[in-house]
Amino acid sequence: MPALDRIKVGVVGVGALGRHHARLYNQSENADVVGIFDTNPETAQNVASDFGLKFYANLPSLAADCEALTVAVPATFHMQTSIPLLEAGKHILVEKPLAATAEEGRTMLEAAEKHKVVFGVGHVERFNPAMDYLVAHKGNTCFVEVHRLAKYPPPRPGQFRRGTEVSVVHDLMIHDLDLILCIVNAEIERFDAVGTAVLSSSEDIVNVRIKFKNGVCANLTASRISEDVQRRFRVFQDNAFISMDYGTNSGVVIRKNKLGLVRKDVSLDPKNALAAELEDFLAAIRATRTGGQVVFPKVSGADGLRALELAEAIVNEIRRYNRQYAHFKAL
Questions:
Q1: Domain extents for the chain?
Q2: Taking a C-beta distance cutoff of 8 angstroms, is the pair 59, 80 a contact?
Q3: How do beta strands 91-95 and 119-122 pair?
Q4: Which CATH superfamily includes the segment(s) 3-123+273-299?
Q5: CA-closest candidate to residue 68, choices 327, 216, 286
Q6: What gap in Å lies between CA 259 and CA 265, rounded to an integer?
Q7: pLDDT, tens digit, 9 for 90 and up, residues 191-204
Q8: For the whole model, what pTM was predicted?
Q9: Are 253 and 242 in contact (CB under 8 A)?
Q10: DSSP-derived pairing of the beta strands 91-95 and 240-245
Q11: pLDDT per residue over 50-70, tens digit each?
Q12: What three-state secondary structure class fits 200?
């Protein structure tokens, strides 16, 4: 793409995930990386040096030179970081979860709508080839079972361990809540949720059972204190069973036919899901430029808010339940 047509982008927060946004934007022929900003100057200088980027000393200066920005700071700072950028008319891709609370998320979405900018949320699993397969073959889904297990994140000097500023529901399970809401596409009838904090000040392991008004049931487990890492999504249909391993980009389909059960191993074409997410965001900005009306990216601010509202409701239910039975802790 001609240099003049490339979208001028910046990255705010270049820690564990933000550095990859900077790297992949830098590799994209559709983006011109203006620079990066991080409240930790040493981190920013290291990333700037690694990828040959400019390090800005403050966010307003970076924003003034950009058309679009990724916000990859801790969730507790998403709203205060994003609102000034949205009010300045900048297109924003904010990492998941959309915000620390649903109220903050609604405020951010209202600002994006008011200022008519592209506003996306970084639910990167929507771009995973396993998800592509599930959407293409979702059929008549009856039951969904999901396990997302991770090891406890390493310490970071002066900061929360990555993701532990929020519950594991907001940190990890929210990926799968978004995927299920996308696949099932029905209102929730009710849910039951249990969970507990083990090493963090918020929930480290959670199980949720969701029943939808169309009869579909989903059972999800998320843990960030597991010895084994697992990202597995199983879909039971009226005539088939599909198991997708998000970690290995592989799966199994067992389908019923007249002769019985037929098994098929699925090997998915590998792709960089984060790179695909960034290109989708850039494409939405280009389409908005051309058409004069805001074009939503694949995961819009409204999608991010829907997942966040469900995550918040789940956490509230877990904490209500734990308060009700707190006397068990004294036994």
A1: 3-123+273-299, 125-272+311-324
A2: no
A3: parallel
A4: NAD(P)-binding Rossmann-like Domain (3.40.50.720)
A5: 286
A6: 18
A7: 999 999 999 889 99
A8: 0.91
A9: yes
A10: unpaired
A11: 999 999 999 999 999 999 999
A12: coil
